[in-house]
């Protein structure tokens, strides 16, 4: 894809200028917003490809912005925040953020997170994946129409829950899914806090999917937060 348009939402002028300068040096196009209201208006009117979002804005909490934007847009949102507690990360990811970077951050890490996000955007745009399509990631292949998954050409014998978990992760490849989001999507709202059951099913899925479950290639654990399916290049 062409260089994406990135919306920087940050009320601290020094941090905003640092991010803007970093993007400019990498030839990225960008917009800036210093308040939540400006951010929502820019997201709606300028149609940026990616949002870099600070949570602590003067007029609106960043989580509220994520929820508003998710009402009409699936653009990737990378949170950049001084809030480092697991609860803050989980709330932002549950609201619809795609990634979470804690301040103080390195410029190199920010650029690396951006590259990962851009690769995922490029993949989505090139494949235009629909529910009845075939998903391929490394040696993993999921035929959604047939309801089957294969690893290195051999069919995986999955339980219905394992298959549902695998599909949910695959359809959000590269994105951290929180425990609450996964359990709600797979079992329903009554089970959304049953992390213990999720861990059991994830362990059995990994045994079937990973060559070495202790060093997983496909499903990455984010301790205290959730899981992410990694894109195998």
From TrEMBL:
Keyword Flavoprotein part of the UniProt annotation? no
Q: Keywords on this record?
A: Cytoplasm, DNA-binding, Phosphoprotein, Transcription, Transcription regulation, Two-component regulatory system
Per the record, DNA-binding region residues lie at 132-231
Q: Which residues form the OmpR/PhoB-type domain?
A: 132-231
Q: Which coarse location class describes where this protein primarily resides? A: cytoplasm
Coiled-coil blocks: none
User: Where is it located?
Assistant: Cytoplasm
Which cellular component appears as one GO term in the record? protein-DNA complex
* Record-level Gene Ontology MF annotations: cis-regulatory region sequence-specific DNA binding; identical protein binding; phosphorelay response regulator activity
Q: Which residues form the Response regulatory domain?
A: 5-118
Its BP terms in the Gene Ontology are: positive regulation of DNA-templated transcription
4-aspartylphosphate found at:
54
The free-text function statement in the UniProt record for this protein reads: May play the central regulatory role in sporulation. It may be an element of the effector pathway responsible for the activation of sporulation genes in response to nutritional stress. Spo0A may act in concert with spo0H (a sigma factor) to control the expression of some genes that are critical to the sporulation process.
This chain belongs to the protein called: Stage 0 sporulation protein A homolog
Which organism encodes this protein? Answer: Fusibacillus kribbianus
């Amino acid at each position: 894809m062409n260089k994406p348009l990135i919306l920087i939402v940050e009320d601290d002028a020094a941090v905003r200028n640092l991010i803007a300068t970093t993007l400019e040096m990498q030839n990225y196009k960008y917009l800036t917003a210093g308040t939540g209201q400006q951010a929502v208006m820019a997201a709606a009117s300028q149609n940026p490809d990616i949002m870099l979002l600070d949570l602590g804005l003067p007029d609106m909490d960043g989580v509220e912005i994520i929820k508003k934007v998710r009402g009409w847009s699936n653009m990737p949102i990378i949170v950049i925040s001084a809030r480092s507690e697991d609860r803050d990360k989980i709330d932002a990811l549950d609201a619809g953020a795609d990634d979470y970077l804690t301040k103080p951050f390195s410029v190199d890490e920010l650029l690396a997170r951006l590259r990962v996000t851009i690769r995922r955007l490029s993949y989505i745009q090139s494949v235009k994946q629909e529910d009845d399509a075939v998903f391929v990631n490394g040696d993993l292949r999921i035929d959604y129409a047939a309801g089957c998954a294969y690893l290195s050409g051999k069919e995986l014998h999955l339980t219905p829950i394992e298959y549902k978990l695998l599909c949910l992760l695959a359809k959000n490849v590269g994105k951290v899914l929180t425990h609450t989001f996964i359990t709600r999507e797979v079992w329903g709202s009554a089970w959304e806090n049953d992390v213990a059951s999720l861990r059991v099913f994830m362990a059995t899925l990994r045994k079937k999917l990973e060559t070495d479950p202790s060093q997983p290639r496909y499903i990455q654990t984010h301790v205290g937060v959730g899981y992410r399916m990694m894109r195998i290049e």
